[in-house]
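Please decode residue identities from the backbone states below.
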């Protein structure tokens, strides 16, 4: 497997998907919205984009499995693509960026490739195993901010699962009072990509799925960042909770997240 070539082609596939989404955004209407669950939306754009991505990835590496948000699930033993065709659907249906295409490739349980394409700014974040992370071909690194008090943070607000809502609000209250601020963009893939390139210093969120974060995780790690679950462990991909940030403030940030969010 030529992972460098595959990474390059995956970027092209993500950009092609983004071009389709960008075009559809010009004629999209609220009548095209479907509801998957409480405040959880999907449209023909999500579904068609997923089909396009999977069709192209099947040609790129025949025989791979797929774990995708809009229902495509065929898991192989070795290589599996993890796909969010439109991360930030709620933003998209309201005509509000950012929203993105997120594609990751796993070799057994290891993420070996990640691409996040943010459509509004035409920014493609990508990396592969044992390689730096890039934004539109330029190497990126996490910030060097050393204290939470000096940081700009990102999170995502709960929209359907409120089981840990009070704990989350406590954490939000603390970080709002003890940082430069907290931003909520509406796309976890973009949150991780922005942390990877130093726009954010750290990020935390609960109730996420693998397709929301898989690509962003390897991009962040290869940009010098650290990732864990709320307890400091490694169940961030499957455990529906993630803490991410630069290595200089990560332990302090994790300590506070753990204090408020650990069950």
């Amino acid at each position: 497997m030529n992972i460098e070539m595959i990474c390059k082609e995956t970027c092209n596939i993500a950009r092609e998907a983004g071009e389709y989404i960008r075009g559809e955004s010009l004629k999209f209407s609220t009548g095209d919205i479907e509801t998957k669950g409480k405040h959880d939306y999907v449209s023909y754009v999500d579904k068609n984009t997923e089909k396009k991505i999977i069709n192209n990835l099947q040609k790129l590496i025949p025989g791979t499995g797929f774990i995708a948000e809009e229902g495509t699930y065929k898991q192989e033993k070795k290589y599996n693509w993890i796909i969010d065709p439109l991360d930030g659907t709620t933003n998209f249906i309201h005509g509000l960026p950012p929203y993105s295409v997120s594609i990751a490739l796993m070799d057994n349980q290891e993420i070996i490739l990640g691409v996040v394409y943010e459509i509004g700014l035409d920014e493609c974040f990508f990396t592969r195993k044992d390689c730096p992370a890039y934004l539109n071909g330029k190497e990126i690194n996490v910030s060097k901010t050393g204290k939470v008090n000096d940081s700009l943070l990102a999170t995502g607000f709960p929209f359907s699962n409120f089981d840990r809502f009070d704990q989350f609000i406590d954490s939000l209250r603390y970080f709002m009072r003890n940082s430069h601020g907290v931003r909520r963009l509406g796309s976890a893939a973009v949150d991780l990509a922005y942390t990877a390139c130093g726009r954010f210093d750290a990020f935390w969120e609960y109730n996420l799925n693998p397709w929301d974060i898989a690509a962003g995780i390897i991009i962040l790690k290869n940009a010098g960042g650290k990732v864990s679950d709320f307890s400091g462990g490694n169940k961030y991909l499957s455990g529906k909770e993630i803490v991410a940030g630069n290595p200089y403030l990560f332990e302090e940030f994790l300590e506070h997240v753990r204090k408020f969010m650990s069950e």
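Observation: Residues 28 and 145 are 40 Å apart (CA to CA).
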